[in-house]
Amino acid sequence: MTRKAVVLLSGGIDSTTTLAIARSEGYEVYALSFRYGQRHEVELERARRIAETFGAAQHLIITVNMREIGGSALTDDRISVPKDRTSEEIGTGIPVTYVPGRNTIFLAFALAWAEVLGAEDIFFGANVLDYSGYPDCRPEYLRAFEQMANLATRAGVSGEARFRIHAPLLYMTKAEIIRRGLELGVDYSLTWSCYDPVERDGEVLACGRCDSCQLRRRGFAEAGVVDPIPYAE
Q: What pTM did the predictor assign?
């Protein structure tokens, strides 16, 4: 019987590569995305196309309005998205693009859906190398969530299931992630990374200056591959 897996899919490089890895390991994938009030909501259309391209059994887009809480440059227009930061600055401290509680909320929804589907596996594109230590991307956090998942569900408590959180990209550089995705047939022109999109002549472009754009561009350069998306700068 084909194993099912819920895959968190933002539409970015990491989550798309994670989806491709889950497919390559023989899972029937169920993609899960969120409209959470993010300023870069353009990523959801990318996620839809990616899920379709990879033949996801189902793709859910769930609305959770985190703008009601704010506290992040991604969900509060009063907080500016950092631009033109150096590699050292990007790698120091927790940036204002951290969204309080976001990954815990997303994984909780993934867990709920997995239990309903009869799936034991949840794939999450967490990475600790290219970002400055988001607290909800650390291996300790993932282990703790996995333990909680098996304590807080009917399937886990009854022994019907043993939930596992997979983070296959955790210790990979962006260049390594891109190379792996290309091996698996990922079309990175479908992906979106920019936190602060720019609209020009009716076209939505990546800003090229936020942390996420800079990490993406550096990853493609180090991988020796041309980044296929257009930038405003």
A: 0.96
